Amino acid sequence: MNDLCWNKEFAMGQVDNDEELLQELIAIFKDSSASDMAILTQAVEKGDPAEARGASHSIKGAAASLGLEAIRDVAMVIEKDCREGSLAVAREKLSQLEALLALMREL
Questions:
Q1: What gap in Å lies between CA 80 and CA 86, rounded to an integer?
Q2: CATH code at 23?
């Protein structure tokens, strides 16, 4: 879990220390991030930086709200590069993001 740089204290603060609610939000994130990751992968394959930006933005925001700092950081650099019309960073960081999301599914 250390690779995720999960700030669980921050996440618990977001849900007023309601562990059950946090687990529900994590489950939702697992589903939504899998869908967003599929969109991101397809966008990279199609050469569509706008679509890739949208998917990475979604992952970044949800990860940030749960204190999943490593996921947030990788998604943020992908989003920034895509906003500039490039897919270079997405191509470079896609496998890292996939690995971090796989780790998160173990939460």
A1: 9
A2: 1.20.120.160
